[in-house]
C-alpha cells in the first residue's frame, strides 16, 4: 500500500533519521534523537531507537513500538500510517498507532472476533485491508472457527461475514497468510492440516495458495475452472508477499528444509513428494532453503528487492536480496539472531521500514517481561527505512 499524500512530511523525517542511521555506525557524532516537528506542527510520533545490530554490510536499528501483546500474528497498514494487528489466541484486533504515548505507539483494541476457536496453531491469523479502505472501511481476516478455517470480510467494529469457508483445520498446519496482490485480488495461504494428501489434490483447499475476489469468489484467470486454487503442493504457508509483480511465499518444511518459493500461476511446489530442492521437473524448486533449526519462518515482507522473513525456531530475521529478474543475489543475511526470541509477524510499512512481531507467548517461547513486542526496523546501506 502506498503512503497517502498527507504523510509526505512524516516520510521526509523518517528518511532523514534513516540516513543518520548509516552514519551512526561510521561516526559517533550523529544521533537518532527526536526529529523536529513538520511545518504543519504535527509532533513526531516515533519512539527512540532502542538497539542496533548487524551482519556484514547490513546494520539495523530496532525500536520497540508496542509491548505486552499476546501472540501477534498478522499486520496490515491503514491509510493514516497506523496498523491493524491480530492476536492469535485472544481473537482480538488491535490498532497500533499512528498516535503515540510514553510507551511507544498507542495500542487500542478495535474488536474481538467471537467466532475464533483458538487452539494449537489455529486462531485469529492473517489480516488484510481493502485497497479502497479510505472509502469502504473494509478489512479481511483469516481465522480458525469451530469446524474449519475461513476468510471473512467486515467493516471495523462490525460482525464479520464469512466469504470462503471449508479450509481444513487442525492443531497444526493451518496456514493463515492473507494479502491483496498487485492485481487487486485477495490471496490466502492454507496448510495441509496434517493431511499430506490434500496438498496434491487440486479439488481440496488445504496445502494451497488461493486467489479470490473481495466477495470470496474464484478470481478471473485462475488456473483451475471455478476454483480458488492458484498454486498447490504446499505444506504450510503462512507468509506471502510481492516484490514488484513477482509473488513469493515462505513455507515450513517437515524435518529437513524450510523454503522461500517464487509463486506462479498453477505451479506445483512438491509437498509431500519433495521437501526442499528435489530436481524433479514436475515440481518447482525453492529459491532459498534453510535447515529447520535455523529458520521455521512464518512472516514474509518485501522492501524494493529485499525479502525479509521472520523466523520462529530460528529466532532471527533472514534477508534475501533479489536480482531484477527475481533470482537470489548473493547469500542471505541473518539479523537479530536470538535477540528477541521467536519472530513471527512482519510487514513493510508505508515509510519503507519493517514492523516485526515477536511470538514468545505462543507456548513454545520464553517470554520476557515486555513480550510480546512489536518492533520497527530501519536498515543502513539501502533498503528498509531508506528514502
UniProtKB/TrEMBL annotation:
Q: Where is this region: Disordered?
A: 34-55
Q: What Pfam families does UniProt report for this protein, alphabetically?
A: GSDH
Q: Where is there biased composition of kind Pro residues?
A: 38-47
Kindly state which keywords UniProt assigns to this record, in alphabetical order. Signal
What range does the record give for the signal peptide? 1-26
Name the InterPro entries for this protein.
Answer: 6-blade_b-propeller_TolB-like, Glc/Sorbosone_DH, Quinoprot_gluc/sorb_DH_b-prop
Q: What is this protein called?
A: Glucose sorbosone dehydrogenase
List the taxonomic lineage: Bacteria, Bacillati, Actinomycetota, Actinomycetes, Micromonosporales
